[in-house]
Short-chain dehydrogenase/reductase SDR
Amino acid sequence: MTSNWTVEDAPDQSGRTAVVTGANSGLGYEATRMLAERGAHVVMAVRSPERGREAAKDVLEAVPDADLTLAKLDLADLESVRRFAEWFEGEFDELHALANNAGVMAIPRRETEQGFEMQFGVNHLGHFALTGHLLDVLRETDGETRVVTQSSGVHESGEMDFSDLMGEDSYDKWGAYGQSKLANLLFAYELQRRLERAGEDDVVSVGCHPGYAATNLQRRGPEMAGSYLRLLGMSLANRALAQSAEMGALPLVYAATAEGVDGGEYVGPTGFRNMRGYPGENESSADSHDEADAHRLWELSEKLTSVAYGI
């Protein structure tokens, strides 16, 4: 494998099906376009069908023979997650890659439909439930299948506050974001351990992160808070420091498709401070490998979502 891995190095994905959450913009859009370019049938799981249709139109302009299906998925509503999974299993017999990509970042405190703090609810619990609902189809698909969960370098500053997971007593938007991104990796690694113990060798779980990539994700927090100065600061930082969304999506596509990726890996940019550059294996924080926290988070997540994996 070359150090400058690009989408052209990805194996042919013809005949394979991938689900990408948050596929209408940013990293999800770029990953959708790349996977379609390599021949995959991509299910674009989006909260807004209207924005999803515009994104699908843009993908088709870039990749005229793209094979796309658009479907509604609101990760802030566990009923929407359940309906999406039921629809998918009714329409598709196979799932080769599940890209748990969608997320919210550093927003004012909000709650999901079920009353969970929004960042923890969307970034972790929504994807935990989605993966659990789709696990059977992943297990029944011939050959190796992958669950790729998008984290962030911010996980390194995250802490699991099990006494106040939902930020009801004290809420810090960046602290909540860091906690949700740490939860993503605790989940990804624990899923891999449980798959291995269950003898499910054909399903692998991989974590990834985009480095510092310029996307709309950075805009939403300042926009929701009505802070023009923060919005301006984010825009200037993106222009000066960030790599493109296309480069930021490469670790996800690498994790989902590249040969030789092992379960339990953490994929990200390999350039300066793992913030930029081509994808490869990174090291995540010691806290992300805390098996006691991972087990506790898993048991709590099953309880909160009412989704039991059975492995």
Summary: The first helix runs from residue 26 to 37. The chain has one domain: 8-305. The chain has a mean pLDDT of 93.
